Amino acid sequence: MGRQVLDIKTHQKLPNFAETGSCFDATNTSKIKCRPGGHDSVPIKQVDVSAFSYQKMTTKRTPGMYQRKHTGTGGTLCPPKKDTTIPEFPDENVCPKAESKKEKKVEFSAFVERANPPNTEFRRFYERGDLPVQIDHGGVHNRIAWKVAIEKLDFHHYLPIFFDGLREIEEPYAFLSEQGVYDMMQVGSQKVLPVIPQLIIPIKTALNTRNRSVIVKVLKVLQALVKCDENSQNLVGQALVPYYRQILPVLNIFIRQNDNLGDGIDYGQKKRNGGLGELIMDTLEQFEIHGGDDAFINIKYLVPVYQSVIFN
Description:
By secondary structure, this protein is an all-alpha fold. The chain has helices at 121-128, 155-164, 173-187, 196-208, 212-227, 235-239, 244-254, 276-290, 295-302, and strands at residues 133-136, 143-146. It has a two-stranded antiparallel sheet.
């Protein structure tokens, strides 16, 4: 018999927080001290003084920085070959030093992910059994089994809780919160408008985490949010205009974050996870289309590179 070849595929490891309890225990939120979207964990770059003044930072030269005998080019263009043989009597000034590890490049702090602790209101209510939802494991894909008819739910109470769970990246909280938001907007589209002011802080908190997967999830929800009353007067899109100052600053940071594939093919373009900048641009276009007459000027004020799709 021939040797059996195992087809091993690597899958991305699902996130799992240390504070998350088992199926019989709740999340330990007493150990969580960081604020979601906070700037405490952001790496700080050293300020270059010479960039803002005529001063220049210098360091004292050590003997090892000077050129030693028989180490120069000798007036030629080609440097002589270095002698890598280890001497009989090792000396720290003669032996070649081991290559120092390259320092990790510090990314610009505007693009660095912020803290996203597992202390959402959705997680707290779900673990306590106060949400009328459970996972319906279907044959093709999972769905949400609602224990109460969605039309009978108090949207002022439940919809902000589900929106707060959008920044969850751990299952089953991530799936339940996202799918729950879509179900509530689809069935109770007429009840969404009065709840808009309560949704701004959860949306802002989720965007401030600067997590790419969370931002993509929130952008898709925002597009569905402005379209949920598309058959009526687009009042939801107009109600979001006064809150652009809380939503759009993070989108302005990532609007140029596109994947340059050259002549390659993006096979995952249906999920819209690759081109974050394109998804942001599509979201802003939907904001302008459904936001009324004052939408464009407010978007342009916060995202200067945006061009109108209506007035052009």
